Amino acid sequence: MFKFDSMQPSGNNIDIPTANDQYILVINGKPDGPFSIAQLKEHNIKPGDFVKTAAMDDYKEAHEIAALRQLFGFSRQPLPLQYFGSFDQRALASIIDWLIVFGVFVLAAFVVMLILLVVIPGEEYKMIRIGITAVIVALTPFAKLIYNIKMESGPKQGTYGKQLVKIRVCDIYGERITPSKAFNRNAAKLLSVATLFVGYLMCFFNKKQQCLHDMLADTLIIKDRLDV
Asked: Which ranges of 17-170 would DSSP assign to H, the alpha helix?
């Protein structure tokens, strides 16, 4: 049974349809077709209509598909307001990600210290334990930065925390971001923190729910599904 809330903007660039594909078109909230390009013209397809081919995992708005933009002269349009992730979703995802990254370091340090406990005398072991703790504290933020860049620019478009709460990072058109844009976004978080976290609170005062670092990097956080 088709449900309208299963439609979502997709930033996945894999299996982009071509002009020869057959399309399922959502008409009055229900899927119909498949239709050829000529039949889509007869239905007077619009940029915001949801379509899907057999090669696509999710429905996309027509303007999101390069082949349809070229054939029908659609311009790429920013995502509608209901797609944007909320502050509580972002905060929960961030907490989960910090726990994941920190947990990996703690587990690795625990294993190393168990090994060293067997081979190193007591006083030296205490000094090494302090050193390992300092290394964990120093490296965790850098590991978190690399983790964020890799995951947010990857196929899932989000860290494990974001995947669990069903949000992801994209550009203003809902497309997957590049590693360089992911770096800019995460580096700009320093400014969001430097403003005494006002940069994070800015998401409450704009329609796209962008934090300062999102504005600077021209990125969005979107929901994995529509809440309708």
From this structure: 37-42, 66-72, 87-119, 122-152, 160-165
